[in-house]
Amino acid sequence: MDEVIESLDAQLSVARQAVGFALAVIGVPVLTLAASPLHPSLSLGGVLLILLAVVLCVAWVGGRGPGLLATAVAATAADLLWAEPRYTLRVAHRPELIALIVFLVLGATASVATSTLRRRTSALVRAKTEARALSQANDLRGAILSAVSHDLRTPIATIKAAATSLMTEIAWSGEDRLSFATEIDVQADRLDGIVTNLLDMSRMQAGIVRPRFQDVSLIEVIRAATRTLDEGERVDLDAVAAAVMIWTDPHLLERALANVMANALAWSERGQPVEVVVSTDRETATVRIVDQGPGIAAADRDRVFEPFQRLGDAGRTSHNGVGLGLAVARGLTVAVDGQLEIEDCSTGATFLFTLPVAS
Q: Which pTM does this prediction carry?
């Protein structure tokens, strides 16, 4: 622990040390001089108590060195302005000399103790922050292991079974072979979506998502997202989007839109369309993705954006796979300076993207 504290002391910012030394060299004499008109109504002991509080503040701000310097400067200033004879460094009365000596001892001790307390407090705060981050990382690791044990193994097992069937000596018909190949393609896409979301969530947890902003056509980003979906033809796009230019990272936004549209398609009844409605004002563009599903209860609207949340979707398979789709979508939307929320609606669910328009 002491090694950690010494390391933190060495890392004390130069700015804080500079402020501490400035307070010791300038602040302490100025305060002592400002209080000098109170002499003799304010005794030497009284002013030393005030200066001791100042020394503690200097040590807390700047560390041990500024605190020790403030102690020496305060004792010298008090001797000059309060101890008799005044304006000299000679002390005529023994009680005043003892008071100054006691102040020096207490000031030095308090400076060291205060500096150590501040450093220990900083170490404790850092340790708690690291422990919290480690706990979150462990939670994420546990959730990923859970996903690997089920959601990743399912498409892998399906691909393995279809490929093994094709490799046998059975004389499959052309229709059967096409069915096996189609199943392999579908499950490979599903596996790719799951892995992509896992990687995106890991990158966001690590804080390494780096958007590259540019002016882009909103409709092109929406169409690119639609093309990644298995049932993209069920997405009805509002033509108004054709005239909207936005300021964003098109690749990150495309993945966010694709995840939300995939979720909407998965929850809508088979054959029911998903509507994408665009509107704009002077500063923002809004994209509403409206599905025909059962809707989302108000109490669950924040939970659906949490990682690995799959509310009531037992038995469903979708692009979102392990329950990361909406969490990743919100994280990527925030990364491109946008917002993703759920709107109140009479039927189904409406996801609302708010995005900055191009200047």
A: 0.53
